[in-house]
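Homework help thread (please don't just give me the answer)

Our assignment gives two proteins as sequence + structure token strings and asks us to describe the second one. The first is just a warm-up. Here they are:
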Amino acid sequence: MKVDNAIILAAGTSSRFAPLSFERHKGLTVVKNEVLIERQIVQIKAAGVSDIYIVTGYKAEQFEYLKEKYGVRLIYNPDYLSRNNNGSIWAVRDLLSASYICSADNYFLDSPFEAEVDESYYAAEYAEGHTFEWCMEVDGKGYISNVSIGGADAWYMMGHTFWSPEFSHEFLDILAEEYNIPGTQDKLWERIFMAHLDRLKMKIRKYPPGMIFEFDTLDELRHFDNSYIHDTHSSIIKTIAKSLNVFEKDVTQIHEIKGDNAEAVGFRFVTPDGQYKYMYHDCLIIQEV
């Protein structure tokens, strides 16, 4: 079937990617000299899919330039702090048909996109040995029959998905039924999918290792793009390094500190001299015992 459009989800706060995501949306991070979401837009367009929507929320204004540069359309999700990514799916419910669903912060070594796709699928890579990723099993016809968080020697969810018109229609019916049920707001759309595998038929699209990348933390990004070891492109880390008389490379093991909502209020980090925390609002560096 011909692909109708691509939806790129870019509403979330990506708080684990502290402090870079506090300063700039994670999807706009430069990785190996390319902006993550721009690389993805170019790959999608090169595949012959020209109708691209970006669902924004957190730091939505930072994506405005993409409209003129690439001709994409922005859809604002006002519930990005109160709902998980099912709110972004709901925001584009009138657009879903034969659609790619992508995350703004994925890096594809080679483009996985095509102008025509046979049926719904979730991209996957294989984990040898134990993993904490979301692992999938399939039935005799190749459809996903079980998803478990954690497993071993298994194909796990990684990257984009493709929704057929039938899958889109069925998922939206379920989402409409459950949208206002307490607890739904905190669910990833994948959690809703997992609960209705009998109704939502989707296969696995298998990719070789090292094809799809996602960087949850600055430390993970440094492993992929070592330019971030010495230059984090973060004014906050530069300030920390100067204040503590260390190099940027010495600021590691960064973990977000969350406030009352989904946004981070600061982060913990380690230097050769000990463990610290940095609070965004007060610009405070506090050494911890």
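The one we have to describe:
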Amino acid sequence: MNVAVIGSGYVGLITGACFAEFGIQVTCVDSDENKIESMKKGVVPFYEPGLEELLQRNLKAGRLHFTTNIADAVDNALVIFIAVGTPPRGDGSADMKHVEGVARQIAKHMKNYKVIVTKSTVPVGTGEKIRDIISKNLKENVGFDIVSNPEFLREGAGIEDFMRPNRVVIGASSSQAVAIMKDLYRPLYLIEAPIVITDVKTAELIKYASNAFLAVKISFINEIANLCETVGADVQVVAKAMGLDRRIGPKFLHAGPGYGGSCFPKDTLALLQIGKENHTRLGIIEATVK
């Protein structure tokens, strides 16, 4: 099976390199010629433990390829992953111009059936928008399916998170697309990684809901830390004892400066905006952001 990954940043490159490690033929696409030339030489443009070795091994094996030519990548692939950025707008909503632009480019070069997969973190309803964009921009009357397959990669542990995930989420409305995606992830069945099969909208929301919940957990323990300081209690012991409850768990219960990173701030704001657009108040997320 041939796969194309459009967008060779953190998510796209790890996705491409790990699928190549599964034995799949992968072409990573990016508009940055300098980045592509570097990666062809086995040089990763950012630091991630183990990624450069993984890239070099699969380049040498002939399973991993890099190009700026989206037309060839689309033509040769059965499955096309969209892994471009969705930075926040001023109102907190995700800027979808890169995703939508890639969808138009894919449509222009499609000559036969494709499975088009969003890896990027995208708002609920994006799958329908991509379907509409592709349908309107097709040059030929060909079939395609839309899949949501959100990433759950932590910086510094991205390869481990891909190879030994807590879960793989596949959102699709077509049994053919589900079968193809299961085939892609077949090596993970051997380690009994949980595979969640659902519809596209539910898959899109799972990523936002997961990150928002972790942000809430961090904000909660920081609020408890403030109370501990006032009453003379030890927040570290409180957090440890809470974490021993299996329903709660010990992770993300470390009092500190609050949540940050590249995902939590933008994803909580984006989730609030999704709520507003759908006339649903998300009071807990709102309090967390404030």
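TA reply:
I won't write it for you, but here's a hint about the kind of observation we're looking for: The chain has a mean pLDDT of 92.
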